[in-house]
Protein 1
Amino acid sequence: MGKFLLLAFRNVFRNRRRTIMTLMMVGGGVAGLLLVGGFFARMFWGLRESTINDGLGHLQIFTAEHFNREEKHVLDTGIENWRQVAATISTGGHVRGVAPRIEFNGMLSNGVKSGVFMGSAVDPVAEQTLGFTARVATGRDLDSKAGGEIEALIGAGVARSMNVKPGDGLTILAVTSDGALNGIDVQVVGVVNTGFKEMDDRYLRITLPSAQRLLQSDRVTNLVVGLDNTDNTDLVAAQLAPRLEGLPQQLVLKKWSDLAAYYKQVRSLFSTIFVFLGVIVFFMVLMSSVNTLLMAMFERTREIGTMLAMGTPRSWIMALFVLEATLLGILGAAAGVIGGNLLGVILNHSGIHLPPPPGTTVPMTFRVMHVPSLMVGSSILVIVSLALASILPAIRASRLQIAEALAHV
Amino acid sequence: MPELVSVEAVTRSFPLDHNFVSALDHVSLHVASGEFLAIAGPSGSGKSTLLNLIGCIDKPTTGRILIDGVDTSKLKSSQLTKLRREKIGFVFQTFNLIPVFTAAENVEFPLLVQGIAAQERRLRVGAALEGVGLSARANHRPDLLSGGERQRVAVARAIVHRPALVLADEPTANLDTRNATQLIDLMHDLNRRLGLTFIFSTHDQRLLEHTDRIVRLTDGQVVSDTLTSESLTTEVSLTQPAMQGVSRGQVSALSL
């Protein structure tokens, strides 16, 4: 077996120019997949972390009713004793903090013009503790300690539509938990640019006490849990679930991955594109390698005939060709992994910026992640592709008529 | 000596355009174990075709060939492969060494195919290379060897697995006189010393002069079968079809 492997290895380097060309092609395919896959992985990672840090958090706790039925009145499926729940959660390992939230909607007016909003109420201190950023473009974030007027953050689209800026006032109207209409005057302290136009056109954020006053309820919609590391999400979720069972209200724990619909859509789309690229690389390597390996087979016809004449089993000849192609694939994959990673490092230091992705307004920095699973996957892809490409030449070689092969010029 | 090869009324024809061309026409030949036999004849006379058939790398259109008493026409492909692997060694006109292997690795290859253990292989390769006088060149690749050395490596490769029969197709055709003479002496020495049966095709007069028996082919037919050993120089003409077989029998008796 050792000698057979040695023969295959030496045959790979028999025609160096052709081998180098094949290695460049295979390595180029792997490097291309690593760069594209690495860019996508970095994009997924960036989107994941920004989604979490923009306020989604790692875990969210709702009442079970929240998912079972529509609210008759605002917050009637909210968490009642949320402070006790928050205290219970905060004692868990890897938990950085818990932020209560109220999701509500209503209308806002500048006295001349009115529009709808999708509002959220937060505890600014808890949000800041968890590192959730509101992406304030002008003005400042909410301050729970500030006295006087009720503060509000509005989206850039709202500010444009209502023709307001930080320091201006707005009136917001919403239906209370009793079903009555209530309104409060707020002072715009900051304008937010989320990066998504649809969101900026309806964005409103006020403090939790202000929303509870507006909605006439002490409940919250949900509790957002921030962890020390996204990788600990599953672990903490598994630890918290039993602790929530002993509480008066039936609560449900959702992971960020359950809630990040946009992230999942983006990931699904780009994963499909990547699979498509992988298929292209697979067939590119397959088709060009078949030709290369067939040429190698024709060049060695007499040698194969000699080996067959000496009583070499035909299966050995087949195995030899498949082994040579596999070795070529391994070498090409290794070259591709090295080249792809080097290129990735160079590109990461180049500071290239890409135009904003569809639906966003912020340019994206081109960065590539070095993903081990991608390296293994891409390598396996080209190795399998080359091994498959060798089957036709291997079958032809093994079926050669010995006398004709020996007479081959 | 027992009969090793028996070619019985063998015909081999090949398709050409819409017809068949006969390369061998009812050829019969019997070779005893330990013979040193040359198949001579002009180009296109059927020498290589006959060797291919005896070497079980081609099949006769009609007739049959027995190797060591085994009817090869009844063997399956895998059985023929096994027969070649164990009982036949090949020497080719163009040496046909594996270029990426060293001389020693080339000689080792038939043993590798037979599944012989590494230590045994090393011993046999060493002995075979010593036998052909190439121990010092064991680790050289074929492109670093002269034509004569390459052919001696090919001979070592053909005998290393101790076959009953060595077939050599024009072994001296690509060699100069000195190397050709050395190769002839070597093969003759192996024939005498180890009792190996050699059948080779040639039109090289230098080789024919050292041969015990010469079978001449013309247009796919055996035209003469001659014993040329020092003690016996009988030539039997086989040009008359009626005399085929009978004369061969007489010659065989004389050689024994």
Note: The radius of gyration of chain B is 18 Å.
Protein 2
Amino acid sequence: MTTTPVRKSVTVDADQKRAFDVFTARHGTWWPSTYHIGTSDYETAVIEPFAGGRWFERGVDGSEADWGKVLVWEPPRRLVLAWQITPDFQFDPELVTEIEVRFEPIGPAQTRVELEHRYFDRFGGRAAEMRAIFDSGGVPGAPQGWAGILREFAAVVAPPA
Amino acid sequence: MNEHPATDALFDALGDGTRRAILEQLRGGPLPVVEITRRLPVGRPAVSQHLKVLKDAGLVSARQDGTRRQYQLDPAGITAVRAWLDGLWEQALDAYKAAVEQDSGS
């Protein structure tokens, strides 16, 4: 059985080149800052502009934490990233899930951005570790990171009866 | 925005303290209902009901072990991870769109 990929798309009022540039060169300016795994507070996130480049976050103290790498670099139309973060929010070089992003021009100043995150089955048995995040106070190394966001979200959508 | 019934079921399931306590117990390995009940201050019918909700949300699965029915954390709880990543990308692309269009006048 194969888990269905996550597919998202968004249409932006910008030409293809700008859409690609903001996604990559200015990645750190729009990435939701609460989604990070480093021990330091989030400062920015970086996608290095070449195949084989790193995808990582940098904390306010200058420390870096890898998220994955660039698998395909085809500006300004296509980008494939490897997401190498396990369900318990650790970087694992052996894990490779893929995020493909396509930038399709639909007018002189409009671009459709289609994102697919796939190969979830590669999370394998480690997906069960996600439970530790759901029902505990957080994850060592990411006290204010993703675990906190998930818990806040859960609290909002399901307030105590 | 509410197009993700799997996500809703997941967060509903996690929104209850007793259900979180059951998940905590199962982190140590599979348990039969009678043993889960013994460890928690609620009755067996309530535990069974909670287990059903957790099962429907894809968080636990049941398996027959000899004559006993055992409950365990769903070893392929990929559904939960997928639902979570779905929410992440939804939020990230919204922010990305805002960033692109904010820049477009410059």
Note: Residues 146-157 of chain A form the longest helix (12 residues).
